[in-house]
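Suppose a colleague, Dr. K., hands you the sequence of a protein chain of 319 amino acids and asks what its three-dimensional shape might be. Before reaching for any lab equipment, you can write down a predicted structure in token form. Begin with the sequence itself:
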Amino acid sequence: MPPDALASRPGVGPLEVTGTGGTGSLQRLFGSQALWVAVAVACIVGVMLYLEPTFGSRQNFYNVTRNFSFIGIMALGMTAVIMTGGIDLSVGSTMVLSAVVTGLVMGADTPWWIGVLAGLAVGVVIGCVNGCLVAYVGLPSFVVTLGMLQFARSAAQVLSGNSPINDFGRDADQFFGIVGGASLGVSHSVWLMLAMVLLFAWVLHRTVWGRHLVAVGGNPAAARLTGVPVALVRLQAYVFCSLCAATGAMMLLGFTGSATSSLGVGYELRVIAATVIGGANLAGGEGGVAGAVVGAALIEVIRNTLVMAGADSNAQGMF
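The predicted structure, expressed as tokens, is then:
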């Protein structure tokens, strides 16, 4: 089969037809942007361990991994959307609305898991709205999700009365212990992120839906001609992305212990940056699980490094 024909098959990228055997594997490895981002993270960590030994302390390791796990979880969903050639600017607002709804439901003295389900349901609803408008109505994803960014955050402000929600009812301690706790010195949000990484990696590489994501982003017209349900795949990608944002909201809420209307501000930019730094192509058709995670890790390691170096908090954004 000619290389061009192989490259056009869903789920097969250009790197997969370069060379054969061990040579092809090495070319794929060293051509992976995720690898070089991981190398950059390792270099920064190595320099910081030399200059500032406390960087390697158990407490700082816990803080760094916990902080980037929230972004990492959300970046998995963003990867799916970007692979289809779209973008979701509403993930930060989805996060705050999910957290506010969870806080209000738990504050009514309902079991904590019902509050969590309510928050996750918010993510599913937002994803359905975004996905339907993009996939079936044909509106640009930038416009749709920009509108949802404002709508969801305003809804959170209205529902919360623009005041922090700190009363989580009778199951508050159980919620914070399970969702915001730690096991083996590692935050539960990190364990959840790792589980989601393994699951999503399997989905991308071993299931029809994973191949469809690549096909839709690479060439939607060709994918449609081969029988791929392009609109449905796009809808599912947006639902998955918003569900990941809601999941990140649950974990962040378990850490902060308060649902405020400022929760998740700017997270959409950090999530998109982490996804693209990790190798996702904004034009669609390319992306990976490992890249999303190491991209999130790079951003958090840089932020933590600046804090330890005593950099002005107002100047950190420039870096």
